[in-house]
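[09:14] KT: can someone run the structure on this one? pasting the chain below
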Amino acid sequence: MKKGLVVLLGVAACIFIIQGVGMGADKPKKKEAVSPEQKAEAVFVKMDTDKDGKISKLEYVTYYQAKAEDKFGKLDKDGDTYLVKEEITITKVPNKSKGESTGAAKKPSAAK
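[09:31] RB: done, structure tokens below
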């Protein structure tokens, strides 16, 4: 009986250890800091669609047009393809270089 209990406890301990080791593998890895040079390289690669090592005017305009259309879509809350003052006024894009957070922007106060 005593031997059976020891074996049972040993098996339980092994299962516990195995599960504990597996749990660490499920955790997402921390993102490594990306240098400005790495960011520039990534943008360059995205813009250089024909992979000739140069950014043409068409590639440049196409890249930023897609970004502008995405931004417009996010601003256009009601999806009517127009922006009204309220859709622009209540939206604030954080300036990461100034350390601004992505928290919700405050609505403008009413005129007194």
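[09:33] KT: thanks! The helical segments are 2-26, 36-47, 57-75, 85-89.
[09:34] RB: yep, looked fine to me
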